Amino acid sequence: MEKTKRLxxxxxxxxxxxxxxxxxxxTRDVMDIVAADRDKIAGVEGPYxxxxxPQTPAPKGYTPFYISHYGRHGSRxxxxxxxxxxxxxxxDAAAEAGSLTPRGERLLKDFxxxxxxxxxxxxxxxxxxxxxxxxxxxxxxxxxxxxxKDGGEVLAMASTSQRAIVxxxxxxxxxxxxxxxxxxxxxxxxxxxxxxNPGGAPREIxxxxxxxxxxxxxxxEFRDRMTDYDAILGNxxxxxxxxxxxxxxxxxxxxxxxLWAGYHNYSDGDWxxxxxxxxxxxxxxxxxxxxxxVGHSRNRYRMIPILENxxxxxxxAIATGVYKGHFRFGHDTVFNALCPLLNINGGGFQPDKVExxxxxxxxxxxxxxxxxxxxxxxxxxxxxILFKALLNGQEATLPQLHAVQGPYYDWDEFKKWxxxxxxxxxxxxx
Length: 430
Description:
- By secondary structure, the chain is of the alpha/beta class.
- The protein has two domains: 2-77 and 125-214 and 297-428, Rossmann fold; 82-123 and 216-293, no CATH class.
- The protein has helices at residues 2-21, 23-27, 30-35, 38-41, 82-96, 102-114, 116-120, 127-143, 145-148, 162-178, 193-196, 219-226, 229-234, 248-262, 278-295, 304-320, 332-342, 357-360, 411-424; strands at 62-72, 152-158, 182-187, 208-209, 323-330, 371-379, 382-391, 394-395, 409-410, 427-428.
- The strands form two sheets. Strands 1, 2, 3, 5, 6, 7, 8 and 9 form an eight-stranded mixed sheet that branches. Strands 4-10 form a two-stranded antiparallel ribbon.
- The protein is globular, with a radius of gyration of 23 Å.
- The two termini are 35 Å apart.
């Protein structure tokens, strides 16, 4: 009985900690934040935002010595060729049926001049994507020069995707330029997919874990409830009877929004900017945000191999001093699950109302080249290892832990929390 009481107290305390750690997110109007920034409306399709990121000084006597990292690939063309081919198919069919409005005719003309190169390059990293990773590495070296000044070993791993590999290469080229003494090893092995893209790991080594996400409503029902299809389609088509034969209104609007959201990753044009009203864009953002919460965040426990890899690599670096950094490159599907697993900024909380998801999970935190850095600090006067988490360069909180000072946390305390989290979600057979 006493043991049960203690367990209830511990669980209740953790819930309160999660709530208090995320209270800032709930006291601000998320929709106003999104409305003020086009790239945030674009969500996971938005390019990286190099926002100012002031760093809180480390506790006295502590200096950085090691960095552990997970990064999404940089800006790319649309991941799915339907973003181009379906839009093209619908516009051509509308033209043949004589159903285009003047705005629809202009969209077809602009799209015909635009779409072929993006279609051929579907899924490929763009030049902007490479530049993002080069700059992120440059900023990291500038913020924490002590980590790399004396050289040492660095290991970089990418998923087997071309865009992740090229992102890794751009990052490490810049790292080598800004930290010439380090020795960098790179790989994109299928056997390392557990640490870069666990969902894509070969069947022989794939791992599954116990634990389900609360899903308040189906994503399709939510999208249909939130989307004013008539208003969006009425801007382009005088008649829409043809549409149901070639995919339907839901798929077309979904791909049209993806086109709008992502084309600035590889094009400087603005020919799509009036295709939706601001109200329509905000509704589509909330639909996409919920889609990514359900589709990605539900896989948070499959990211346990990355958590274990982070811990093992860091402990080796602490013990030997050989490694100065471990850098992993992958995808939004991983990033949107890993951050909730680690409870970054309290994002591990699971709301039971679909309308509340946006207060706890925001997909604009996973733009192209999104990155999570754990920066480790040590002192000659104390055996306690400290670290802080940077989400896209911004200092983040881990509300399940007690901060030592500012954004700095005790590494041993984190490992104890991680051990309990892993134990609560054991591996299962599939």
